[in-house]
Design a protein that fits this description.
- This protein is mainly alpha-helical.
- The chain has a single domain, classed as Growth Hormone, Chain: A, CATH 1.20.1250.20.
- The protein has 17 helices and no strands.
């Protein structure tokens, strides 16, 4: 979400937040002949707390990790911006590789060991980063974090295991609420602690993760019985396997391109938010943390209260085009805002950008048959992951060049200007792909032939 998700320096939820998941070719089919296991309510509460603590911990370190890099670079923000991109790429690459691997392991060996080992490893890694004596050791810590933080798909799979299909939407709603809550509270707490000492947020994140692992050791039962485990789960570990679905017909490929531009623009937020606001507005860690909390609140309001009514009132096509327009205006406002209060006033526009994401996914889901819905979610997650590797390098390098003393044009808002241009491209393509003629063509492709 916020989806500052979400794949860079500290991967915040996709902002605007959209919740989706994939564990290999997991499909949420309503036909489940095998009875659902019934772990205790405490087990579901633990999974809920796992998601909350994971993203609370990510949020806690978000306002301070870039400043720790600046500290190691002797206060050189341009140089720190470039290094931040490498950190973000390394973290996202580990997520891209290990999310499907951990998903495959959870299908082969059970959800419980994967979730607990990931929580415990994440706690130890935060301690490692709290003690890191140099930039090289901090990078190693981020790489380990990218591996151990890949347990979210296993948490979602756990809920799928123990919840009847007709109740899953409600349970996933609770998980989505944990996402948002973690990214509202986390940055505010991290900013407060970072104002005292840059290392304190890492210790706080470590305590949360280790406490979560110890709690789960005693209350979390296994959700996947041995007879339901995959005998050969490695086929699910290919992070690119589901992308072939997106080439099945023209409209789906066009919408996938819209989502790619959407996610790539999204990466500008976690990649340069801290560095940009500190450089341009001289914000402290506390200021950044509070601003990120405002982002979390704005995104949660739009996701939880406005998306459904807006789509029902205006339809999916207008929702996509409106959301992308709001996002473009928000990024351009970020790029040109000369005062910090003007920057803050643009946050609601980016919150309203959240209307577009679910609407695009809904349009995409209409273009595949019911048996391919799980594969479609896997493809969307792959797009998000690839964008998460490209985005941090792209936007941090643009910022580093834009504020460098070696160029004549000084434009620190360049990363957000680029994000606005990406959304303009996404908006133009979305208007073309979803035009009525294309919609009719798509309906003729996806509808069964009555004569057949």
């Amino acid at each position: 979400m916020l989806a500052l998700q979400s794949q860079s320096l500290c991967r915040l939820p996709e902002f605007p937040a959209t919740i989706s998941y994939s564990v290999g070719d997991l499909s949420l089919s309503t036909a489940t002949p095998t009875p659902q296991p019934q772990p205790s309510r405490a087990a579901f509460v633990f999974v809920l707390i796992t998601v909350l603590f994971d993203f609370l911990a990510f949020g806690i370190i978000a306002p301070v990790l870039p400043n720790l890099i600046i500290h190691f670079e002797g206060g050189n923000i341009a140089r720190a911006a470039a290094i931040t991109g490498y950190f973000g790429f390394a973290w996202a690459l580990m997520q891209f590789i290990f999310s499907p691997i951990l998903g495959a392991w959870s299908a082969r060996f059970g959800r419980r060991p994967v979730i607990l080992i990931s929580c415990f490893g994440l706690g130890l890694d935060y301690i490692f980063m709290a003690l890191a004596p140099s930039l090289k050791w901090l990078l190693i810590g981020r790489i380990i974090s990218g591996i151990t933080a890949s347990n979210i798909s296993s948490a979602f799979a756990y809920v799928t295991d123990v919840t009847p299909p007709e109740k899953r939407a409600k349970q996933f709603g609770y998980l989505a609420a944990s996402f948002g809550l973690g990214f509202i509270i986390g940055p505010a707490v991290g900013g407060f602690l970072g104002n005292i000492n840059l290392r304190f947020p890492f210790w706080a994140a470590a305590c949360l993760s280790l406490a979560n692992a110890m709690y789960g050791f005693f209350v979390l039962p296994e959700s996947l019985p041995k007879e339901r485990r995959s005998k050969s789960a490695w086929r699910m570990a290919n992070p690119l396997g589901s992308l072939t679905l997106l080439r099945s017909h023209r409209q789906l490929f066009g919408l996938a391109t819209v989502m790619t531009l959407f996610y790539l623009a999204q990466q500008s937020l976690p990649a340069v938010f801290v560095l940009y606001t500190q450089y341009r507005y001289a914000w402290t860690e506390r200021d950044v943390g509070l601003a990120l909390a405002v982002v979390g609140v704005s995104t949660s309001i739009v996701s939880g209260m406005l998306v459904g009514p807006f789509v029902r009132r205006f339809g999916e096509r207008r929702s996509v085009l409106s959301g992308l327009t709001f996002g473009m205006l928000g990024f351009l406002s970020f790029a040109f805002a000369p005062r910090s209060w003007m920057f803050l006033c643009a946050i609601p526009f980016l919150g309203l950008w959240g209307i577009a994401g679910p609407s695009v996914q809904s349009l995409m889901s209409r273009r595949v048959d019911p048996t391919s819905q799980g594969k479609l979610q896997g493809a969307i997650n792959s797009i998000r992951a690839i964008s998460g590797m490209i985005g941090p390098l792209l936007f941090t390098q643009v910022l580093a060049i834009a504020i460098s003393s070696s160029i004549s044009i000084h434009f620190p808002g360049a990363p957000y200007f680029l994000a606005g241009l990406l959304l303009l491209s996404s908006l133009t393509l979305a208007a073309y792909v979803t035009r009525p003629a294309a919609q009719a063509d798509s309906a003729s492709i996806t509808s069964p032939d009555p004569a057949s």
